[in-house]
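Per reviewer request, we include the raw input and output of the structure prediction for the construct analysed in the revised manuscript.
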Amino acid sequence: MCIVFVCTSSPRYSLVVASNRDEFLGRPTAALAWQDGAREPFVAGRDLSAGGTWLGITRSGRWGVLTNFTEPASAAGTTVRSRGELVSDWLASDASVAAHATGVRPGEYAGFSVLLGDAAAPETPATVWYVSNRAVKPSHRVEAETFGLSNSTLLEPWPKVEAGRAAFSRALEGAEGEEALIDGCWKVLSPAEPTPLDRTSMRSSISIPPTRLPSKDLTKGGDEWYGTRVSTVLLVRRASSELEAPTARIVERDIWMLNEQGEPVRGTEKREEEWTIRR
């Protein structure tokens, strides 16, 4: 039950991304950090259970964000690749975003939607491609310049996406300075109303407080704690002149985690990286 909001038309930023990752709180995960990629370094968190990542960006500005569909195992087939590889494969690619997006083989994965872009490309607004194996059109360029996506298709947004997109637009317009913009994005990602009781009611809540859901691990059985694990804001600043390079900043903060007793507690840690985008 992840959610992401994207803007490519801000006067100061070629890209603004605000995202929540919702997952079982006990799922093994590595926090946001620089990693050695096949082609170049990239910064991302890592899913230590299935591999790949849900959100990442390379040093040169290639970025991707993933959301999943929750479906019965039979809907995905018997042999599927980790959906986290959809982002990590793009971060390692040397193809254009259009060529890579249209070359994805949707049938190799369980239900997904992924946004792919190149924040350093010369187009204004920056090009974003959408790929999904649950949409009528599996891959296409996103025409909207400010939009949101959750665990439905791009053209069938859940109620929380519609509400969050409006709040995201207000945060972009009203922020005076970068810290105010980031704070505004945190506020966009924070509403947990109405309090979700199951996956269906999570369609209306942007942030997911700890909720007991049936475990995906058949060896465990029973219920496990599920909720918003981290919130992330990604900014790519426009270069002020042709002689300068764009710069990027990414901030990730913990929202909910498990303590040593296996009970959910509020996260307190925050991680941040900033760099100049180089081709």
